[in-house]
Amino acid sequence: MAASASSSLISGSKYDVFLNFRGEDTRNTFTSHLYAALCRSKIETFIDDSEVRTGDEISSSLSNAIQSSRLSIIIFSKDYASSSWCLNELLEIVECHKTKGHTILPIFYHVSPSEIRKQTGTYGKAFAIREERFKETDKVQKWRTALANVTNLSGTVINHDR
């Protein structure tokens, strides 16, 4: 199930914004506040309100939501890279960025862009586990490359709660 705000401001797109985030890290804090602010501003926003995900591949409905959005806000948080679901959404977002000019706005929530780019700290640990667990090294490399590329885009760093 998904939720969305008012009518779309951008013609030709079903959603103005797609929110990509690790639910356990930010769903009930930063992401819920951001979503509420976007709704108040009448910005049509897709947020996946499912609490639990099984499997690794994103559903066709999520893929369609990404493809029919004008912009994706990616909220990188401490344990973002431990979610195959987030990383697979990220791949879809990056593909739309390359092929359709989809805009990406990264937000670094309590994590530095360099930690993600260099894949150190919790990101390094998450990928070490993934490389042991997944025999699909091509997939892991795609995740690594997508993370590194997105961290080179202009974004916002949030280091403390306000």
TrEMBL record:
Sorted UniProt keywords: NAD
Database matches in PROSITE patterns: TIR (PS50104)
TIR domain residues: 13-162
Matches recorded under InterPro entries: TIR_dom, Toll_tir_struct_dom_sf
Cross-referenced Gene3D superfamilies: Toll/interleukin-1 receptor homology (TIR) domain
TM region(s), chain numbering: none
Database matches in SMART domains: TIR
GO biological process per UniProt: signal transduction
Cited SUPFAM superfamilies: Toll/Interleukin receptor TIR domain (SSF52200)
Protein name per UniProt: TIR domain-containing protein
